[in-house]
């Protein structure tokens, strides 16, 4: 039975709730395709967690379910103990999507301020926060420029800045460095590592296996809508006698693809 929306999930022993708790998540779409089936996932508060898998593995469905964009067929999801459908959960979540989905005709500053308002941040506080993030992401000289006038790399920075406007405790990054150059990738790594060091929990999906190995405390391998293995980069390398996560991925995911 799903918890009442808005009510924090009770924990045995009264400990602090995990940043994300997923139990029995399943999603079957109208065409009969089952993207996720009986998936369980727990991510601790303060973790830097990587989610790896091929296209179609269920990563997008999982993220969409957590963010209340996709309606699960079954299962429960909580964010810091709050049902994922609740206003409290939405305030605690920040999502930087892979697709650049910003309003093309608003200025950068307006995009950030409007997003903060959606999460209940007052205008004065939103303006201060927008200016702070514009400076952090080196977009302050473009504050009054419309989004469509930005380069692809600048748009990527904007999407990340927007996700941070309401100071989320759980930041979900869906392919945050897809299509960016090496310099910007390194810059994003530095910024995200700093956020995590400051206490923000990060859930990262990426096809850059080196990125996951470098940044993440723990990694889960997702295939066919289920988690087939998880652990720290070191423990996964040891388990599969592999030199790096790329080799682990090839042995776990590619082997399953061949077997199926």
From TrEMBL:
Record-linked InterPro entries: AAA+_ATPase, ABC_transporter-like_ATP-bd, ABC_transporter-like_CS, ABC_transporter_ATP-binding, P-loop_NTPase
Task: Supply one GO molecular-function term.
Answer: ATP hydrolysis activity
A Pfam family reported for this protein in Swiss-Prot or TrEMBL: ABC_tran
SMART domains reported in the protein's UniProt record: AAA
Boundaries of each ABC transporter domain copy?
A: 20-249
Indicate yes or no for the key word Transport. yes
Membrane topology recorded in Swiss-Prot or TrEMBL: Peripheral membrane protein
Q: Which UniProt keywords apply?
A: Antibiotic resistance, ATP-binding, Nucleotide-binding, Transport
**Where found?**
Cell membrane
Q: Name one GO biological process term.
A: response to antibiotic
The reply to whether Transport figures as a keyword in the UniProt entry is yes
Record GO cellular component, one term: plasma membrane
PANTHER family associated with the record: ABC TRANSPORTER ATP-BINDING PROTEIN (PTHR42711), ABC-TYPE MULTIDRUG TRANSPORT SYSTEM, ATPASE COMPONENT (PTHR42711:SF15)
This chain belongs to the protein called: ABC-2 type transport system ATP-binding protein
Q: State the organism of origin.
A: Actinacidiphila paucisporea
């Amino acid at each position: 039975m799903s918890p009442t929306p808005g009510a924090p999930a009770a924990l045995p022993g009264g400990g602090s709730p995990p940043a994300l708790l997923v139990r029995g998540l399943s999603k079957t779409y109208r065409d009969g395709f089952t993207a996720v089936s009986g998936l369980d996932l727990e991510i601790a508060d303060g973790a830097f967690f990587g989610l790896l898998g091929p296209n179609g593995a269920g990563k997008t469905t999982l993220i969409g379910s957590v963010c209340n964009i996709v309606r699960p067929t079954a299962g429960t999801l909580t964010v810091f103990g709050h049902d994922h459908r609740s206003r409290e959960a939405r305030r605690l979540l920040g999502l930087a999507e892979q697709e650049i989905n910003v309003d093309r005709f608003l200025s950068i500053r307006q995009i950030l301020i409007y997003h903060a308002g959606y999460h209940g941040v007052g205008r004065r506080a939103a303006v201060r926060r927008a200016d702070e993030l514009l400076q952090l992401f080196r977009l302050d000289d473009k504050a009054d420029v419309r989004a469509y006038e930005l380069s692809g790399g600048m748009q990527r920075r904007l999407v990340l800045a927007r996700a941070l406007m309401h100071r989320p405790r759980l930041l979900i990054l869906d392919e945050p460095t897809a299509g960016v150059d090496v310099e910007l990738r390194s810059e994003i790594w530095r910024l995200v590592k700093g956020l995590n060091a400051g206490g923000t929990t990060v859930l990262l999906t990426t096809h850059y296996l080196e990125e996951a190995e470098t940044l993440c405390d723990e990694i889960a391998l997702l295939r066919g809508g289920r988690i087939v293995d998880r652990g720290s980069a070191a423990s996964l390398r040891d388990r599969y006698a592999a030199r790096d996560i790329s080799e682990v991925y090839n042995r776990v995911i590619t082997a399953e693809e061949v077997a199926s």
